[in-house]
Fold each of these.
Amino acid sequence: MSLNGWLQIALFITLVLLLARPMGSYITQVFERRRTLLDPILVPCERVLYRITSIDAAHEMRWTEYAGSMLVFSAATLLLTYVVERLQHLLPLNPQHLPAVEPALALNTAISFTTNTNWQAYTPESTMSYLTQMLGLATHNFWSAAVGMALAMALVRGIARRESKTLGNFWVDLTRGTFWILLPMSAVVALALVSQGVIQNFKPYDSVKLLQARQLTGSDGKLTTITTQTIPQGPVASQEAIKMLGTNGGGFFNANSAHPFENPTPLSNLLQMLCIFLLPAGLVVSLGQMVGSPRHGWAVLAAMLIFWFAGTLVCYWAEVQPNPLLHGVDQHVSLLQSGGNMEGKEVRFGIVNSALFAIVTTDASCGAVNSMHDSFMPIGGMVPMINILLGEVVFGGVGAGLYGMLVFVVIAVFIAGLMVGRTPEYLGKKIEAYDVQMCMLYVLIFPLLILSLSAISVLMPHLGLSSLTNHGPHGLSEILYAYTSATGNNGSAFAGLNANTPWYNYSLAVAMFFGRFMMIVPMLALAGSLAGKKIVPASAGTFPVTTPLFTVLLAGVILIVGALTFFPVLSLGPVLEHLLLRTGHTF
Amino acid sequence: MMASHSQQRSLFDAQLLRRAAVDALIKLDPRRMMRNPVMFVVEIGSVLTSTLLIVDALHHRVSFSFNLQITIWLWFTVLFANFAEAMAEGRGKAQADALRQAKSETTAYRLINGVVQEIASSQLRVDDLVRVTAGQLIPGDGEVIEGVASVDESAITGESAPVIREAGGDRSAVTGGTRVLSDMIIVRITSNPGETFLDRMIALVEGAERQKTPNEIALNILLAGLTIIFLLAVVTLQPFAIYSGAPQTVFVLIALLVCLIPTTIGGLLSAIGIAGMDRLVQHNVLATSGRAVEAAGDINTLLLDKTGTITIGNRQAAEFVPAPGIAADHLADASQLSSLSDETPEGRSIVVLAKEQFHLRGRELGSLHAEFIPFSATTRMSGIEVEGRSIRKGAVDAITNYLQQHGSNMPAGVLESVQQIARSGGTPLVVAENFQALGVIHLKDVVKGGMRERFDQLRAMGIRTVMITGDNPLTAAAIAREAGVDDFLAEATPKDKMDLIRREQADGKLVAMTGDGTNDAPALAQADVGVAMNSGTQAAKEAGNMVDLDSNPTKLIEIVAIGKQLLMTRGALTTFSISNDVAKYFAILPAMFAGVFPVLNALNVMHLHNAQSAILSAVIFNALIIVGLIPLALRGVGYRPMSADALLRRNLLVYGLGGLIIPFVGIKIIDLIITALHLA
């Protein structure tokens, strides 16, 4: 680890913290329907949209109606994407004449993008046409993020409102989140990325002659000589911006943000990482503002920062270590070489920006990658996995991170709240049996999907294990990571696992689908229940949710719940691999 | 006062222990166990390992000794939890037995149309009239409708001093099983047999009517949720273990499961609830439900009656303020004379003050041939006619009237003194002799010692105290200031009291109050915690959700502390239970897998002797910690009034951090013992 490395990390987080407050204030303005600078342009657009769709913007929804609207919207858009994928060979903007997407893969992908996961079991440039990428996938990048924000706002309103039956209007929240926040910000970020060299066109793929012909032995044993290389093109910048801002992470290319057309320079890399954290951090500040306790927002953000910092520290440390199996090779960090474990990393990013990117993308539920997590050292690769296993509440996905974190806040307040000798209260709302039940349902779904699907996979040699390229603890990590990423709606891949098989396409689709919607429903039920409660005024006897003590407590609860659930399987996966690697075993 | 109480008993009384041990076995009935999801899982695990053990024994499998020990300790885990519950219940049962003795069948003398009829007390019905004479037991709960008697209520309250019960007013309620010591009363029965106060009290302390409180239900859901999560973690661990080439036995998996699920709090949860109720009974307070005890911990606002709670019941003379031109000792002398036969505490205090300040000795009234003029509602004065002196004392307007009737006026100087005294919170009493005002006696409310400190403590706990008084706002403000309460309600009518409670509740606050009169009943019913005084009317007792047998209004403060302690104990043990798991992982996981992967011994941070001793140590620790924490569960965690932030910091440190560290030490010690004894 070097001073230069830490300075880059410090620069990144300082920028996040500086931008969090203005971002949060803006989000608050948008969702509380206050005046903003963009109103003159957007208000007319909003009115027209409501008139066309006959939405009554003044209508307030109970949690059930809010959840119903969200599910209907998600189902409809999921179907749209599926149809576009299946019919892409008949539709325009397909210069490469790519065939229709296979049903299992099409379903997996449609669910993946609807749920903000952006798990990609395919190679985009050889599977999806430009139209599919734009109409089927990029749209979901906006919608799924806007849905996430709407849901988080519904929960925040539930906390802030007093004896209210309703949580707002889903359609209005969806529209305002998209028009006021995601669209304008994406436009700005897309232009900034273009300035760094990210491409934006509808051209057919380029074909270039190789300077040096390569010979490859095919699987049939025949020798082929390769003389040309195909360079994919496409409308990348427009998709790249929302991929980051909406914590979606689905790459335009298979190599994702490691691809020079997606993420060409260290500056674009910094911008991408900032975009990932920007909205989740802003939403936490907005939470504080909307519930009337800005310090509470900062206390929650501080708990997130603890995990972010710990993850960065461990991952960075693990990756700069020389690989013990390569003794005799100079692996030190110096001006001439990146040093450390550079396998699967881009030289233009080096160790620091690869490790930091891996942490940021898994803290938030983004899932974009600029390096291959499969090639990290066992501990380095375990940290991104743990980030997701903790429930993706460290900043987390746009909206999803905040509402997930708030569920943990309620649990933490419940456990520790009893210790101050009162019925636990969260910001004046009494936490009762029904609320605990909904929180526990939310918390339960997550390990249920991850552990049971992983367990089934490792027990089935033909369906589960045949997709593995590595065996032993590393193989276990690959399978575990896949279900973790899917259930957590992260979408990053550990690689090394061929997930484009019917078993993995369907089972991962199940993980993604239920990992999103089965957790949202109890969360909204919690929001509805909280909204209906009285607010007990704060006193010296009230559980404080603005102090450093609360921050530590919240972090402790998240860590203990996450660690206790997944420690056994992690000890057989990355921990065992790490220990075995030190004795010279690899997998 | 509490410490001297007969119902206090040692935590580990031999007889109690024996009874609890038997009850622990009876409680193994799965239908009972199902009420506690965490311990039910342990019981199922124990049954499963026992069955496997028998199968193993038939086939002479390896590690029989280890499996046997695991099975035994799993059963102990269940039994220890049952034992804790039985202990808590046992303490209640012992109290119930004592109460039952008071409930023995008695003869009642029923009055029908003036004719006395002898029947068994169990045949009495509501609205029957009974006559009770000195030496007899009152046959059932009721209200005195005629007569006055002194009653020994020690069977209920433990207090040996007799109390007065009389018809009308706020001291009319009597309790079945108490004994009339003097005189004769006629009692109207207000409850049917089996529904009396004593019956309710017995049911309550025995825990027969115990229903889970709201917080307990919520906590149970949390614990059940955690149990399911750990069940998932352990069930799926076997496939991962098989994949890794290190499959585990069912014994080891169940051992891991039982160690992980929150058995410590799960096993002690109901004991904590019962013990909380029991502590209340030990303070001589009866709650109609556990819900009320919990609500006490949540109180935001405490309404306290001024008289008897904040101030000692009566005003006392504090000062003689003579009118201009009158000597102070003259005023004192006249005041003392007029008060000689005034047996009210105020009157006595005037006599005493005059003696203290001016060495005026009390004189025998009889030898003076004096005529005493008692206080009457029409004149609102009292006084004396003695040796040509005509002395009167009374409220300022009454004396002013009296003077005007006799053609003289109240001097401005006296009026000034009167106002000054009123402003300071005192009560002015004007004294006149031969139609001339002599001056004013300053009667003062005396605030009980230590009240200010208690209110400060309450404030630190986030509780606002409001003093309720019939005094005028000026007086009320002065006393409120002196006592250190946060707010006051002056010239309070029952309706004002009710409105105040409603207003506070509309803000989401929980309100507690005490009361004894029938006119307090609506407010007692409206309050979240309404403590009725046992000396009060039946209506008040029915309306409240607690009854204080000592009739001590200040006890509300203790009740709040008990409620808080109950919740804190649950929270602390939950935190402790969950923190414990970290150490257990470090004991069991390396033991499970280090056989196949020796590198995993790196996780054996406690350097436990071998795999079997490690697993066994964790299971034994898990079982023993339940027993070890029984005293804490029954006594409740220590509680001193302080802010929530400070409390949280302390409890997190003790039970969170402590819960993290203690099992590391405990498991290591058990491992050393097991190894020394060659048990594994």
Note: Residues 64-102 of chain B form the longest helix (39 residues).
Amino acid sequence: MADPHIETYDPEHEATSAAITESRPARAVLMAIAFVFLALFLVLPLVIVFSQAFAKGAATYLTSLSDGDTLSAIKLTLIVAAISVPLNLVFGVAAAWAIAKFEFKGKAFLTTLVDLPFSVSPVISGLVYVLLFGAQSVLGPWLKAHGIEILFAVPGIVLATVFVTFPFVARELIPLMQEQGTGDEEAALSLGASGWQAFWYVTLPNIKWGLLYGVLLCNARAMGEFGAVSVVSGHIRGQTNTMPLHVEILYNEYNAVGAFAVASLLAGLALVTLVLKTVLEMRYGAEIAATRGH
Amino acid sequence: MSNATTRTGWRFRQPSVIPGFGLTLGFSLAYLTLIILIPLSGLAWRSAALGWADFWRIALDRRTLHALEISFGTALIAAAVNVVFGTVVAWVLVRYRFPGRRIVDAMVDLPFALPTAVAGIALTTLYAPNGWLGKPPMALGIKVAYSPLGIVMALIFIGLPFVVRTVQPIIEEIDKEVEEAAATLGASRFQTITRVLAPGLLPAVVTGFALSFARGVGEYGSVIFIAGNLPNVSEIAPLLIVIRLEEYNYAAATAIAAVMLALSFLMLFVINLLQSWSRKRYG
């Protein structure tokens, strides 16, 4: 127990203890397997996106990005994310407040329901809105009579995106706020703070990094969602085409450079998300709590 | 707090000085109901309206059965592959030190962050008969893209992080003294791993498998590009739903979706059981 090299967990020294690690050749083999696997499945797809996007030079790349339909797809994707992420952010905070700060009947069930959209196929997430608002539905004729467009229009795309990204913020905040308990808020309230003040000045600073983490993941999914949006969008070029849908259209038209140019923007978004996520985990790991793994 | 509850009998919620319960719970329930519960129960209601006979006639249609078989079969194979390689990746990331480990660790989450359509066209280009990775197997007569094998490749990509991220924290938590004890008692390294460590990792591995499998079954975006989408051969169930919708055959789309949903909820239930079992046993 006195020897710190045995007692403490020191990642730099752990390989020195021969008894609890694999032999040198075994280590080399395992590492080779892991690296080759990751190179084939993670690195190469990323490399091919950028190499195909720039296959005909930077000028062609820029031309295909400045195409009118591409620009409107980018705009629509930004609009959809700008509506659906804040909606799920507000829901996430409210649900986490109710679930983490109070004890009530049916809490475990409610927590399970929050995760429900993750176990629904994206196509089904879109289908449920088609069944609800489509021309054949109960609501369909009424919507049509009143000139309200939901399907094959922006509201439908937003709804499908909200459905798919529903759990992201809530599931980051619930375990975090449960771990933090209610002591801080109770102290603030006993010192005369109002409920809102306790939330703004006590709770929010406590959860801000976890909240950002959840928003980051929510946004990545909102901008990249394909299946659900594909079902409700109607694929009208320049109008109801988000970036992922535009990638599909260009690809199916054998416009590889165009498809991969738009894809490269989405891949760039994914890389930025990963970098920010890693930075958050490294710097504020404790404040994001047990949120690793999805 | 629990004393207060027993004294006053049944109570919906335990007393608290913290405000905002009604507001936050009310809003959460209303939002959950509008966005998730009403649309999902609409699906249940529409499939019930089909009637028993019609429902099963569609669900047991040959093309539908093949699509379900392909979706579940390829997801099963992909999850099995991910269990093997994902566990090795998790082990290497936790136990070995090498330059760039943090970058490799971060990269594992790429399939979570990369839009599925992008993954789809990238993998298709890679594994196409004239692609970087598609050409060598083509020389042996194995077609990767535009075949069920291509679907498996896409699902391996999609499911990988689920296994790594479930197994990794458990490997991190392994108490080194257990391994040292095994070594002192004369176990070889291989014996220590298979007899001492593997049983402790098993629940996490199974959970990772289930998560990867569940995600693979419903996956659409990355698969439709690489699958080739031949009916009865490489047509997945989510694609068949889309095809039926495009034919305005809402009854068929609804029935297939209901079957898929029932099967995924069953899996969710099993995953929850596994997790509570592993928490009880190893928590």
Note: The longest helix of chain A spans residues 68-101.
